[in-house]
Inverse folding.
């Protein structure tokens, strides 16, 4: 069962049987920098990895899902934190 | 010749009186400077290369006949049209003629056409007036998600005033409002008024006004149609109960708006009582007259301009897609003839606008970084498309093939430079 505060970016990294997951802190950055940081990191991660972007820029809530669509990744979901949005994507299998 | 137009240095002798006199003197100088440097007046601006203005939506260069009409009305229609003397009657004649011409153009009776202070004011008062007139029938207001901010805000104000709620109907990836969802929402009990734009001015997509209007009529709910991006460019039709339009968008003056309210619709304009409730105190007769003459002029060759500009838009669509990581947004076919919108991944919209501006090109943008609030365009957001790196091109009737080709030649380099600045060139 999932408790409400257990957010994707708080999952332990590199679960033994699961894909790697990590959190990218893009708070304070304005569009299009959160998406640029995400794309740069995505290029280094293996297929299937989960990446959560933390962003304070309202445009990221639209642009991260749009980026995943244009790049063929999956948008897992978004959560509103106290000071930022947490946007999680799963990188496509290559 | 040129001279600088700087405010005179203040001295200890300056008082409020002389300062006011100085300001008038300064404006006079400014006026002459403007004429001397205005590109359309044949002068030379700061840059030798001619500007290519591709942001002709909501504000377009004046059609020559609109300009001529305006100047003529300055001479003949300067007086207050409410006065009973000859000068006043002459102004009233121009104003009445303007209303009649616009009524004829939109398929309305002259008594149904009103001038408002601006297009935004037409949307605000139109929606609120119809909602107020329907307060016994309902309190809710139904609008599309891609309406102009003026409509969304007026809908909120109207619903709040009646104690109802604003219901916002989603749009699809092409920017078209969900006609089924809108029809269902309008048919629900307690709806005072609904609003659906004729076409979206930001991405060009035509809306299902025919279907939604038929459903609204069946439900007895008046439909407000914002034709601000359409009238003068494409056939608007008569599927509306209230129609708002924007003279500045069709090459006529800003500072006047058009609102047509069908006689069958009960409308109670908001605000304190005034003899002219749709534009308290009256509108500028030269502006209204130029708006009407301009509309007649653009409708006279609309079909030819439609074909010509559609061809240029197709050319832009095709060329833009050769730039890496671009998304052209809006319906590719069922659309306005002169608007084309695209978003570049990893591009700062403000930086791209500045880069293009330096190179001599003016374009529009719905990117967050180009807005005062840092909020991205609600239209792009509702469509689920990229909101950054956004460019809107709106072609004027005077835009040439050579203008478009020059722009297309400069665009890829500008995009690449802006991407490199953010270290996104290789992504």
């Amino acid at each position: 069962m999932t408790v409400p505060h257990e957010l994707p970016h708080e999952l332990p990294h590199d679960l033994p049987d699961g894909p790697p997951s990590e959190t990218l802190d893009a708070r304070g950055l304005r569009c299009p920098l959160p998406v640029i940081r995400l794309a740069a990191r995505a290029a280094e991660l293996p297929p299937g990895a989960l990446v959560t972007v933390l962003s304070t820029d309202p445009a990221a809530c639209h642009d991260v899902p749009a980026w995943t669509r244009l790049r063929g990744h999956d948008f897992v979901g978004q959560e509103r934190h106290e000071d930022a949005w947490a946007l999680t994507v799963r990188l496509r299998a290559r | 010749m040129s001279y600088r137009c700087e405010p005179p240095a203040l001295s200890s002798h300056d008082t409020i009186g002389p300062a006011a006199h100085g300001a008038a003197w300064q404006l006079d100088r400014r006026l002459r400077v403007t004429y001397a440097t205005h590109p359309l007046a044949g002068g030379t601006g700061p840059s030798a290369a001619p500007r290519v203005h591709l942001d002709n939506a909501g504000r377009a260069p004046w059609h020559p006949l609109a300009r001529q009409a305006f100047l003529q009305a300055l001479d003949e229609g300067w007086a207050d049209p409410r006065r009973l003397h000859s000068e006043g009657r002459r102004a009233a004649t121009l104003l009445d003629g303007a209303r009649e011409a616009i009524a004829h153009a939109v398929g309305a009776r002259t008594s149904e056409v009103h001038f408002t202070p601006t297009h935004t004011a037409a949307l605000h008062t139109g929606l609120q007036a119809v909602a107020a007139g329907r307060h016994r029938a309902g309190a809710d207001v139904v609008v599309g998600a891609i309406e102009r901010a003026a409509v969304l805000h007026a809908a909120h104000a109207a619903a709040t005033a009646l104690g109802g709620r604003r219901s916002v109907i989603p749009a699809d990836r092409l920017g078209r409002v969900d006609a089924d969802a809108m029809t269902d929402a309008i048919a629900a009990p307690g709806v005072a008024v609904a609003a659906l734009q004729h076409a979206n001015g930001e991405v060009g997509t035509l809306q299902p006004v025919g279907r939604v209007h038929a459903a609204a009529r069946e439900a007895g709910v008046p439909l407000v149609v914002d034709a601000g991006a359409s009238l003068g460019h494409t056939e608007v039709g008569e599927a509306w109960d209230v129609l708002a339009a924007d003279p500045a968008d069709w090459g006529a003056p800003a500072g006047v708006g058009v609102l047509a309210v069908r006689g069958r619709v009960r409308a109670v304009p908001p605000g304190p009582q005034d003899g002219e409730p749709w534009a308290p105190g009256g509108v500028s007769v030269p502006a209204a007259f130029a708006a009407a003459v301009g509309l007649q002029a653009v409708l006279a060759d609309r079909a030819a301009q439609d074909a010509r500009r559609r061809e240029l838009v197709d050319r832009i669509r095709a060329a833009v897609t050769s730039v890496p990581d671009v998304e052209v947004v809006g319906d590719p076919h069922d659309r306005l003839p002169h608007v084309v919108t695209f978003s570049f991944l990893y591009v700062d919209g403000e930086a791209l606008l500045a880069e293009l501006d330096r190179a001599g090109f003016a374009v529009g943008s719905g990117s967050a970084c180009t807005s005062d609030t840092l909020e991205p365009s609600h239209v792009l957001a509702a469509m689920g498309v990229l909101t950054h790196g956004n460019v809107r091109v709106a072609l004027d009737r005077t835009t040439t093939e050579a203008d478009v080709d020059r722009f297309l030649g400069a665009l890829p380099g500008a995009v690449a430079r802006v991407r490199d600045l953010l270290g996104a060139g290789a992504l």
